[in-house]
Amino acid sequence: MYSGPITCWSRKPMPMAQSRAVVAGGSRMREGSCGTWPYHSRMTPAPTFPPDAATLDGLAARLRDADWAVLTLSADDPLLRAAGAEARELAEAGHLRPAATGRSDDRRFAGLRGDSTLWLDDPACGSAAAALLAALDGLRGELNRRLLLGLDSVEAHFAHYPPGAGYARHRDRFRSDDARVLSLVVYLNPDWPDDAGGALRLHLTEGPLDIAPRLGTIAIFLSESVEHEVLAADRPRFSVAAWFRQRPRGG
Ligand SMILES: O=C(O)CCC(=O)C(=O)O
Ligand SMILES: [Fe+2]
User: Which domain, by its residues, includes 100?
Assistant: First the structure.
């Protein structure tokens, strides 16, 4: 049960060094190596959800230059922990459904993806889903204010990939629907070992980049341009996939 703040956006000033340290973005990722790199300094604790204003400024600055970023929050973040617990409970209770049978646009992915999903606004969801959806909507508003991308809504679902399941290389924006602008994946897996698999692989011009689905990590990228895939893991993998949307222009 999550009973913490859901829409409180801290304006506490933070040293810029911290916000630079917690956000990694395209042009800085020169090595192109898979795995980890120093998302945040050991000297400063990672922020919690919702991120403070300096972290948001750093994230927005990164997304102005690069088409992807990684935001690392504290692995003790109470909202993320509650969302992870709720995702597991909902999956155990059978509320998540194979993604290919979800909304009509998902049907084309039959055979390409092995996850089961549940939209965060589904009545089966509990307080953590509602709080996370509100926090994501707050993040949408804060990024939109800084980037003026016309982001006017958020959609988000829990996803559960059983061991061995993945999602083949794809882009998140549909040909028939240009509403998705920014993709975010909020990982809900505490203590994810480096050798467990399950990375999100971004296919970038500088090479592939693997992001481990560890609790506290939020991957953010442009829905239209960044091809990506989910690699199979040796254990259940939980996340929230979210999209910040503009009003569809295609009709
Ligand atoms: O879970 C992930 O890392 C990415 C999921 C994804 O690509 C999607 O749902 O479109
Ligand atoms: Fe995707």
Answer: 53-245
Convert the pLDDT of each residue in 54-67 to its tens digit: 999 999 999 999 99
> What one-letter code names the amino acid at 221?
F
At residue 79, φ and ψ (nearest 5 deg) are -65, -45
- How far is the centre of ligand 1, averaged over its atoms, from the C-alpha of 110 (Å)? 14
Q: What is the CATH number of the domain that holds 82?
A: 2.60.120.620
Q: Closest ligand to 185 CA?
A: 1
Ligand 1 mean position, distance from CA 87 (Å): 15
| Tens digit of each residue's pLDDT (9 = 90 or more) over 139-183 | 999 999 999 999 999 999 999 999 999 999 999 998 788 999 999
Is 199 within the bounds of a domain?
Answer: yes
Going by C-alpha positions, the residue among 195, 194, 245 that lies closest to residue 224 is 245
> Using a 6 Å CB cutoff, which residues line ligand 1?
159, 167, 172, 185, 200, 228, 230, 239, 241
In a domain, 141, yes or no: yes
Tokens for 81?
Answer: 């922990």
Rg of the chain taking only CA atoms, in angstroms: 17
Query: Ligand 2 centroid vs 172 CA: distance in angstroms?
Result: 5
Residue 213 contacts residue 187 (beta carbons within 8 Å) = yes
pTM summary value? 0.84
Q: Which residue has the tokens 């049960």?
A: 1
Is residue 197 within 8 A of residue 174, CB to CB? The reply is no
- Give the number of domains in the chain: 1
Predicted pLDDT of residue 174: 80
Q: What is the ipTM of this complex?
A: 0.99
* Per-residue pLDDT at 87 exceeds 80: yes
